[in-house]
Amino acid sequence: xxxxxxxxxxxxxxxxxxxxxxxxxxxxxxxxxxxxxxxxxxxxxxxxxxxxxxxxxxxxxxxxxxxxxxxxxxxxxxxxxxxxxxxxxxxxxxxxxxxxxxxxxxxxxxxxxxxxxxxxxxxxxxxxxxxxxxxxxxxxxxxxxxxxxxxxxxxxxxxxxxxxxxxxxxxxxxxxxxxxxxxxxxxxxxxxxxxxxxxxxxxxxxxxxxxxxxxxxxxxxxxxxxxxxxxxxxxxxxxxxxxxxxxxxxxxxxxxxxxxxxxxxxxxxxxxxxxxxxxxxxxxxxxxxxx
Length: 291
Description:
Largest sheet: 9 strands, mixed
Low-confidence stretches: none
Strand content: 15-25%
Shape: globular
Mean pLDDT: 92
Distance between the termini: 42 Å
Structural class: alpha/beta
Radius of gyration: 19 Å
Number of strands: 9
């Protein structure tokens, strides 16, 4: 969402750690972001080597972009889109999709009230993208996902680190707003540097054939001539990144910061994240197989 000082976000009312809004403006942002990332990946979203999967789960499915993609690509599969908020009605729902509102950590935790749609060792493919703002125990979460996979099934996790680069050199180490955002996230148990740690957690959970692919995300359209697949995500980062963090700073840092300090951090963030040639960050695509 482009920065709008008059916009007041609306948030979910659950016990989940997720710190981003769930209103119609956020739905629009999620749609554009998801399509931009798909194009960045040459519209080959699935990196795991799947062969006729019959049971698929899209965790943190948002507006259902990938859920729809999976259901269309694999019409014989049952595809579950799971999210803590209701999935908005932004596209016709494929007949093989079932949307489930809830936290997968509750839905699939072994107990008397476990959801019958998520038994152990039954999924061929489980996908998630950008859960950086929603998972407080990544090792535990990945162990849970590993338990849901059938032998030979694949997990695919696409996530980021809150690290920015310019011409290959990391530039964020002195950004006060990011340092305070990290502290606020840690107070909620969140890890804003989860992206390149997922591979290690997958191996600890017993997954094998773990591999990682990196995609560089430009802030702005400076890379389009060389990499045309970056146009939409670059435009999205240029227009929406500041608006996203404008509200996140207040939500995660307000416990011990004055209004004046919040405004100072917002101004610094706005300057740091302006689109410039060579400025980018990375999304890590990690896949692993259950032996």
